[in-house]
Amino acid sequence: MNKDMKTVVHVVQHLSPGGIESLALDFVSFSSRDHDVYIVSLQGTKEQALAKWPKLKAFAEQLVFLNKPDAFSLKTISDLCALFKELHVDVVHTHHIGPLLYAGLAAKQCGIKSKLHTEHDVWHLNSFKHRQLQRALLMWVQPMVVADAFKVEKRLDELFTHSKLTTIHNGIDTLRFVEGQKQASREALNLPKDKTIVGTAGRLESVKGHDLLIKAVNELPHHYLLAIAGDGSQHDKLKTLTASLGLNERVFFLGRLEDMPRFYQSLDLFCLPSRHEGFPLTAIEAQSCGTPTLVTDVGASAETLCPDSGLLVEANCSKKLAEAINAFKPSSTSPRAHVVKKHDIRDVVSRYQQLANIGA
């Protein structure tokens, strides 16, 4: 065993495409060479995860799946404790309340001093049960607590007395998400070259508000088209809505894309019409590709915007979305510089590593 190496374990609820999970993978990719980084998924199996998310194959040797049952499981705590001892873990980093419960207690039991917990959203703390559980866990586990947005930090500060609290905005690989040629990107995606294209990306679920954006397009002039990247349970329902509004020639369902930079590069405007959000990485990705971005005023979405080119719109209103899109005028300033300065994943990982050393 190399004593100069520090072993870090990130614990998530499940490994499926999402912002929290993508961030955990970035920790594997961008941590210092003297850090040996693993991701533990409480739920699911490796076979299931690899089948649903091919991107994980590159990280397969650093992924551990516990296949936890839905019900509370004391065995999961003991399994984690055994794993931590086997890997000689120095730092345990939990993401969300379930991992804090299981991995936080296991880390405490194993005597691991350096414990980090990132709070990615605070919706769940509207539940009295969750607030009481989190309060007890924070007092017992005593992790360094990181909010991924100022709005999240403010809410945590209102609810809990916890001195080890700071904000680190999530980041992306700004060397991957770069500016490109719009027309070449459209050609690669089979998108029209002579139209104004608004795009959105994310799971096709009600919370993401795709239906609102489709209805907004119906109120816009015909040269406006919509490109949707992603898949989910609402796919068929959204296709039906599109057909019912006579928009089959103006709305493009592209499915899940591997080359997301090319998607963002093809757009005139990126739009996130969510009903609820945490700190959305897609908004940062789009802006890193030089694409102006509009988000609805939910969660910490506003904190993702470039102050020169970003647009903030009232949530849950297709009419307001349509009005904002129609009135949009491109800024002479690219949002990329803002993202590079504020949200590069290398800086994010470095700040977390400094916190882990403080907590050790």
From TrEMBL:
Domain Glycosyltransferase subfamily 4-like N-terminal: 18-174
Domain annotation Glycosyl transferase family: ranges: 182-329
Keywords: Transferase
Signal peptide interval: none
MF-aspect GO terms: glycosyltransferase activity
Pfam families for the chain: Glyco_transf_4, Glycos_transf_1
Superkingdom field: Bacteria
Record-given protein name: Glycosyl transferase
GO biological process: carbohydrate derivative metabolic process
Organism: Vibrio comitans NBRC 102076
